[in-house]
Amino acid sequence: MFDVVIIGAGICGTFIARELARYKLRIALIDRANDVSNGTTKANSAIIHAGYDPEHGTLMAKLNAKGNPMFDAVCNDLDVPFRRIGSLVLAFNQDDLHTIQKLYERGIQNGIMDMELINRDQLHNLEPQIHQETVGALFAKTAGIIGTWELAIALAENAMDNGVELFLNRDVQSIHKENSVFKVTTPNSTFRSKVVINCTGVHADKINNMIATPAFKIRPRRGEYYVLDKTASDIVHHVIFQPPRKLGKGVLITPTVHGNVLVGPNSDYVLHDEALETTASGLDFVRQMSLRSLKNIPFNKTINMFAGLRAEPDTGDFIIGESPDVKGFINVAGIKSPGLSASPAIAELVVELVDQTLPALKLNTNFKVTRKKVYHFAEMSNTEKSALISRDPRYARIICRCENITEGEIVNAIHRNAGATTVDGVKKRVRPGTGRCQGGFCMPRVIEILARELNHEMSEILKDELDSQIITGTTKTTEIVEREELTVA
Predict the structure, then answer these.
(1) Which of 68, 64, 69, 77 is nearest to 19 (CA)?
(2) Superfamily of 1-82+146-217+314-371 according to CATH
(3) 49, 124, 238, 376: which one is catalytic?
């Protein structure tokens, strides 16, 4: 019997799990996927927004403004890459200048600090390669970039360090409540708890409707992106937005925390919540729109393209609260942008809601704020590297040449709480396969290491989800036949 079951191990579910672990509660974090952060958290712009964009008075505005300043401490505690590089909303004409003026005023209403409206010369001094047609910008200095899935994984790991139990490959089929106890049923297990928290992204309305009266509808919107090689990193130094459109903040260009450049997304409604394919038309739209912002984008340095889904609610705002007709069932739904930016504040709000349902929560006095040390070999000094190698020679063996990732880092990522069990799981945690060759050279070695460390056959190692086998069988069998020597008389 659990006190709380959290359905969904994306950024909100993992943040909530960690915050609830500060109290003496038995908590289950469950997810339908094969790993933590396999939904929207895995495929987004990885931006911490300043908070000027949401309409004043909305949950989005309130929680974005509160959440943004919380990332410095969280990322420091959990050793997650995060940089405050600032954002620029470009203006191309007088109408756009009026738009960014309104955004500035909204930011003031929302309590956002360190914003200013800058002219053309100031803009081009900050970003020399910005298109010549630009006439000004809104500069928000508190915006940042982050390792999104690394944060979710770190939160899950730290939550588990503090007693949370993680269950993957648990696709919820039904939820019932009897005598104040919820029964959450999956194909391979049943969970009983006093509180259920719905953090299932594009599936949140379906989960809600299993137990509560339908109250909202989620429509998935697909966004497609280009990832440029690190050799393109000098083209942009801030997060570059265009004036917002009806369907969102538009196509952006941003550095990533690991030195690449991200270009995208478009914003298209799709008919089903598994539509993760990229399209020629979508990527062409991203390409054409982005060239309005930057005069020279080296798309010939593209190393990957991907798509992600956003949970667009029909309410126009985050849906966070206890269901009015099912006490103890809490929705955390419609968490579209700026959901990542708001996530630590969302977690605090949900703890307050749980406290109202399970009153007098008792603090976990043994709560661990930090997690076990993570070694980033490529970022260490030569002295630090030598010391680490003397303790564990596996750190001397480079597996991913593009990103300089060692065998020691991969083994460590496998054996931590919420550890990697798949090729993409290793990729999300320590980055082999994210460089220029996209795993062309290192994937076989990663498979070998996973098989060895997990005591599996190589053919059992998956790329990501349960049906993503990489090795399906042998191509040929080699027979060794002893040769009998002939004696010639």
Answers:
(1) 77
(2) FAD/NAD(P)-binding domain (3.50.50.60)
(3) 49
DSSP state letter for 391: H
| Angle, in degrees to the nearest 10, between helices 423-430 and 407-415 | 110
289-344 confidence digits (pLDDT tens): 999 999 899 999 999 999 999 999 999 999 999 999 999 999 999 999 999 999 99
Cis check: omega of the bond before 265, within 30 degrees of 0: yes
49 given a catalytic annotation: yes
Contacts of 24 (CB under 8 A, 6+ apart): 361, 362, 363, 364
CA distances from 13 to 9, 26, 200, 342, 347 (A): 5, 15, 8, 13, 8
Q: What is the pLDDT of residues 147-200, one digit of tens each?
A: 999 999 999 999 999 999 999 999 999 999 999 999 999 999 999 999 999 999
In three-state secondary structure terms, 98 is helix
pLDDT tens for 350-366 read 999 999 999 889 999 99
Contact indicator for 220, 334 with CB cutoff of 8 Å: no
90-93 contacts, C-beta under 8 A, 24 or more apart: 90/123, 90/130, 90/134, 90/136, 90/137, 90/240, 90/241, 90/242, 90/243, 90/293, 91/134, 91/135, 91/136, 91/137, 91/138, 91/243, 92/131, 92/133, 92/134, 92/135, 92/243, 92/292, 93/135
Q: Where are the domains of the chain?
A: 1-82+146-217+314-371, 377-460
Length of the chain counted residue by residue: 489
If DSSP codes are grouped into helix, strand and coil, which group holds residue 444? helix
Residue position matching structure tokens 């597996």 = 399
> From CA 393, how far away is CA 51, in angstroms rounded?
46
Give the integer Cα–Cα distance in Å for 253 and 447: 33
Report the 10 Å Cβ neighbour count for 348.
Answer: 15
Task: Please state which architecture CATH assigns to domain 377-460.
Answer: Orthogonal Bundle (1.10)
> Is the pTM value of this prediction over 0.90?
yes
The pLDDT tens digits for 377-421 are 999 999 999 999 999 999 999 999 999 999 999 999 999 999 999
pLDDT tens digits, one per residue of 96-111: 999 999 999 999 999 9
Rounded to the nearest 5 degrees, what angle is found at the Cα of 43, between the Cα atoms of 40 and 49? 85
